[in-house]
Amino acid sequence: MAETTLPAAPGPVGLDLARTALLIIDMQRDFLEPGGFGAALGNDVARLAPAVPACRRVLEAARHLGMLVIHTREGHRADLADAPPAKLGRGAPALRIGAEGPMGRILVRGEPGHDIVPELAPLPGEPVLDKPGKGAFYQTDLELILRNRGIEALLVCGVTTEVCVHTSVREANDRGYRCVVLADCCGSYFPEFHEIGLKMIAAQGGIFGWVSDSGGFLAAIGAEG
Ligand code: C5J
Q: By alpha-carbon position, which residue is closest to atom 5 of ligand 1?
């Protein structure tokens, strides 16, 4: 794997692909499909759909390159012992975390809604991290996995832009990882939060990282079209 440069904001970003991992955040049925956690909170889940094919193109290219691919899932133990009361109390009682929904218990590990959408299903050997919070580093072994593989940069995709993607990028940035968020591979129930969330990452000379897109990545590695 070679070095490459991606077009990005606030400026081009060089990546050593052998030391770069693809981090796909929470592309779960619970957020992307009707009847899950996202819909239970009153959101229009269709807004997240365009991120799936974009993510898939990047995922296939990353696999082809032999890049480390890591998937995360937000969710809780069946007994909800790892869910803070403030989080459990959110939303209408019949639709809260742990309640029975059309895809099983909402945001609970092992339930159908907790699965990653089929288009982006992890392959054997790709680490899948179950996280109880919004950030991918919080109460997971992500940092250990990245260190063991010599990773220094992350290509970040997933949902939602301003919640779990943003939190994870902030955590990664503080730990010294260079993050490149692929804009069209992310999504939000609130288009304005998506736009502003991405601007916040690249603002002030890239205060949290860089923002590029799937086309920029695929072109940089010679995989477009
Ligand atoms: C949310 C996430 N939005 N994955 N989770 O609750 O962004």
A: 164
**29-80 pLDDT per residue, tens:** 999 999 888 998 899 999 999 999 999 999 999 999 999 999 999 999 999 9
Q: Is the CB of 26 inside a 6 Å radius of any atom of ligand 1?
A: yes
C-alpha neighbours within 13 Å on the C-beta side of residue 1: 16
Pocket lining: 116 vs ligand 1, CB cutoff 6 Å: no
Output the CA–CA distances (angstroms, integers) from residue 99 to 33, 104, 106, in the order listed.
16, 8, 6
Q: Is 164's C-beta closer than 6 angstroms to any atom of ligand 1?
A: yes
DSSP string, 166-183: HHHHHHHHHTT-EEEEEE
65: Cβ contacts below 8 Å, ≥ 6 apart:
1, 17, 221
Q: What span, in angstroms and rounded, lies between the C-alpha atoms of 114 and 214?
A: 25
Q: Ligand 1 centre from 94 Cα, in Å?
A: 19
Q: Determine the residue type at 225.
A: G
Q: What's the CA-to-centroid distance between 77 and ligand 1, angstroms?
A: 17
